[in-house]
Amino acid sequence: MDTKTLFSERRSATFFNKDKQIEDQLLKDIINLALEAPSAFNLQPWRIIVVKSEESKRKLFNLSNQQDKVLEAPATLIIIGNKEGYADSNPVWTEMLQSVGGDEKMVNGAKEAAAFLYGSSDERKLKFAESNAGLLSMAIMITAKEYGVDSHPMSGIDFDGIHKEFSLKEEESAVMTIGLGYYDTTKELYPRRPRRLFDEIATIV
Ligand SMILES: Cc1cc2nc3c(=O)[nH]c(=O)nc-3n(C[C@H](O)[C@H](O)[C@H](O)COP(=O)(O)O)c2cc1C
Q: I need a surface site. Which of 108, 157, 189, 195 has the fewest CB within 10 A?
């Protein structure tokens, strides 16, 4: 599908077909392609919990204001940003060291810069986690569409409850959830609502 079509035809699939599962391999293909999304210093400060079992779905449903799509979607992703993804323990630094031919000075400089830019206040930490994981989220929805899979982003959710019930680490933040599956064609989506365009939302300075 070309990019124009992907963007104009992606919808939040309010109704999923409960009887149409999504194969694990397809889920992996979608997510692996979406992981080409950019991230600061390529740090990829994110992880994903795939909610598939009936028990986990029920738990997430109750933490999502009982939005039916959580029960209907064959899989719902919890997109998690890591507020400390710039830390030494991130394996990306090792990969970076190899990529730059073992230039430790260069990598240590990048580590220091990242720690300052993203770790020097709670606000910066949260922005780091959420901006990067937000880009990944959009990439997942567009990639899913390319593979013929519908999606639904959700932030009408109990973030603290999800943090606790899905055992997120202290430094992690649930950014949003994304239902994935196939739109239930027996139901009708409301028409796509108009977007405010460049002249309304942009300023050239
Ligand atoms: C971050 C985010 C959170 C959202 N949370 C919810 C939600 O909790 N429940 C819901 O029904 N829709 C939710 N939506 C869907 C929006 O209402 C929807 O994207 C918007 O109305 C535009 O419709 P479209 O996605 O079909 O183009 C969310 C969308 C985004 C991007």
A: 195
Rg of the chain taking only CA atoms, in angstroms? 19
Residue nearest to atom 27 of ligand 1 (CA): 11
Contact 94 CB / ligand 1 (< 6 Å): no
> How big is the CA angle at 136 (ends 132 and 142), to the nearest 5 degrees?
145
| Residue range 8-55, pLDDT digits in tens | 999 999 999 999 999 999 999 999 999 999 999 999 999 999 999 999
Instruction: Report helix angle 104-119 to 122-146, nearest 10.
Output: 100
The domain in which residue 50 lies consists of 14-190
11 lines ligand 1 (CB under 6 A): yes
Positive or negative, the CA dihedral 130, 136, 139, 141 is negative
Domain count, the chain: 1
CATH code where residue 56 lies:
3.40.109.10
Q: Is the C-beta atom of 176 inside 6 A of ligand 1? A: yes
For 131-175, how does the pLDDT look when each residue is reduced to its tens digit (9 = 90+)? 999 999 999 999 999 999 999 999 999 999 999 999 999 999 999
In total, the chain counts a number of residues equal to 205
- Rounded to the nearest angstrom, the gap between the alpha carbon of residue 110 and the centroid of all alpha carbons in its chain is 25
Q: What 3-state DSSP class applies to 88?
A: coil
**Is the separation of the CB atoms in 95 and 89 below 8 Å?**
no
Strands 172-181 and 46-51: unpaired
